[in-house]
Design a protein that fits this description.
Blueprint (H helix, E strand, L loop, with lengths): L1 H14 L19 E8 L2 E10 L4 E3 L2 E12 L10 E9 L5 E10 L2 E10 L4 E7 L6 E8 L7 H8 L12 E8 L2 E17 L2 E10 L13 E6 L6 E7 L4 E10 L5
Antiparallel strand pairs: 1-2, 1-15, 2-4, 3-4, 4-5, 5-6, 6-7, 7-8, 8-9, 10-11, 11-12, 12-13, 13-14, 14-15
Helix pairs in contact: 1-2
Amino acid sequence: MKRIFGSLLFLFFFIHSCLQAQEAYNQVPFTFGEELSFEVSYGWLNLADAKMQVSKRAQDQNNRPHYKIDVYGKTKGAATIFGKVNDNWGTYLDVETNLPSLSYRHIEEGKYRKHEYVHFDQKNRKATMKLFDKENKNIKDTKDFDLPGQVQDLVSGFYYLRTQDLRGLKPGEEILIRGFFDKEIYNIKLIYEGTETLDTNLGKKETYIFSPQLPKNKLFRGEFPVKVWVTKDQNKIPVKIKANLFIGSLNLDIISAKGLKNN
């Protein structure tokens, strides 16, 4: 269960870094204080809660204002039988460039702990990863990486997508994703499938649909096992993600949205 939940979070946030090559829309559809809440379910079983939260005010990083964005995932109820998950993934996103200057992960899954920080030098195409001990007090390891160009991290990629103009996409169009995560550069093909109107906790929403082409693995079923629905409005928020497993499917559905920039 812990592995499935972590993989779902990875797919959910990494998928959204797909449109780095698209022409910028020059409109930032989110603002300080935005908060999106989701429920993760498997069939009738509610497994976890997830939240995406933008800081209420700008945070300084390298003498520049940034959005501090946190993503939280926590198992609940019967799902804790398989092992408790309490994760926090975050980024400092430059207000002007929409590129991350710092990303971090605080992972608590059963007895497993991981505290990691990655500092990005986007101008010089460098990244420095610092891994801390289980108590998040002392540095265990530091590594430097060369980057192929400007990159997103898992969390920043989603918010970067929301600044892009999605209106010109055509069904079947393929887009390459480029991002840095877990010491590697990832390039994944993403397919745009069109639009669909969904019934959500926020009401009926017209959405864009995306599917990533994933390599064969032991968790998901089929070449395109995951679909993501993003609202076709000025906010461009995710309202649903569905992952087909070898047995059944895992769903992440929005339950509330606060502090939206566009009402």
